[in-house]
Amino acid sequence: MIIVIANQKGGVGKTTTAVTIATGMAELGYPTVLVDADSQGNAAQFLGLDPRPDLYRLIIQERPAAEVVQRVEDYPLLGVVAGNADTLEIEDALSRGRRLHTATALRQALARFGSKTAIIVDTAPSLSNIQVSALNAADWLIVPAIPEYAAETGVAALVQTVAVLQEAGGGINLLGVLPTMVDSRSKEHAETIAKWQARFPGLVLPAVRRLIAFGKAPGAGEPIWDYAPNAAEDYADVMAAILPRLSRQLQRQAVRP
Predict the structure, then answer these.
(1) What is the rounded CA–CA span in Å between residue 116 and residue 17?
(2) Residue 257 scores a pLDDT above 50
(3) Could you state, in order of their start, the residue ranges of all structural domains in the chain?
(4) Which strand ranges, in their side-by-side order, compose the sheet holding 32-37?
(5) Which of the four CATH numbers 3.30.2350.10, 3.40.50.300, 3.30.565.10, 3.40.190.80 does domain 2-250 have?
(6) Residue 248 burial class via C-beta count within 10 angstroms: exposed 0-12, middle 13-18, buried 19 and up
(7) 119-155 b/e with 16+ CB inside 10 Å = b?
(8) Mean pLDDT of 23-36
(9) How far is CA 248 from CA 131, 163, 189, 253, in A?
(10) Which residues contact 35 (CB under 8 A, 6 or more apart)?
């Protein structure tokens, strides 16, 4: 099972969402791999890990999955494939299209982790070839977005991309639009969330508030579950909303104590 976290706009909480969902699923007993497909390499840094080994070695050098995964000390069921500046070389290879094909490159590479691993992919804030490859590989898409009027077009475009991929035979489904950095006092935020709920019924996930803890946790190298459990309640609500939709796939993957 592959869940892609994507939005073409930066600064909306994609990496925080990817790290939090990945660590949350591992803590619940599901073997999970967090894959950073962004050249900024923030996902590994958020967990206090090195930027190498990396996705470049998995895709371009075709290394075995076990050689590119880093383990997270407090989450024994979680592995991380880092991103870094070398990720840009993957983009270049996809652009040339001589050996790697955008539609299949990431899917084929991630298949090395096996069918019993939940894979969470963090993507760059752009419509890059890597993001397109990730969407082609995905079973599910989560779109984090700040609920501002200007965000509506970008969210709608990604939802439309899901429809286009489905028509082309892809297996991707929208898992949810995730309102992030929400200010409960903001009329704009409330109105935008209401519009999303009307436009995407049943697919708007519980809101994640704008909290200082989300900005400080990466500097501590800890997921929000450990750094600020009270702040993590928002993502606990998100997990509770998405897990029932994933239950059939997750039943085949759980490792129970």
Answers:
(1) 22
(2) no
(3) 2-250
(4) 70-72, 75-81, 32-37, 118-123, 2-5, 140-145, 173-179
(5) 3.40.50.300
(6) exposed
(7) bbbbbbbeebbbbbbbbbbbbbbbbbbbbeeebeebb
(8) 96
(9) 26, 22, 33, 10
(10) 55, 80, 81, 110, 119, 120, 121, 122
- Structure tokens belonging to residue 235: 């993502």
pLDDT band at 95 (very low <50, low <70, confident <90, very high): confident
- Confidence grade of residue 8 (pLDDT, cut at 50, 70, 90): confident
Tokens of 209: 């508030």
At 154, which amino acid appears?
A: G
What confidence tens digit (pLDDT) does each residue in 153-175 have?
889 989 888 999 898 888 899 99
Answer yes or no: is pLDDT of 211 > 80.
yes
Counting other chains too, the contacts that 165-172 makes at CB distance below 8 Å and 24 or more residues apart are: 165/135, 165/136, 170/135, 170/136, 171/138, 171/139, 172/4, 172/135, 172/136, 172/138, 172/139, 172/140, 172/141
Per DSSP, helices labelled H in 97-151 are 105-110, 129-137
Q: H or E stretch including 149?
A: none
Instruction: Give the span between the Cα atoms of 183 and 216, in whole angstroms.
Output: 18
Helix%, strand%, coil% for the chain, nearest 5: 45, 15, 35
Residue 256 parent element (H or E): none
Q: How confident is the model at residue 152 (pLDDT cuts 50, 70, 90)?
A: confident
Supply the pLDDT for residue 254: 58
Read off the amino acid at residue 172.
Answer: I
Average confidence (pLDDT) over 76-94: 93
- Quote the CA–CA distance of 76 and 56 in Å, as a whole number: 24
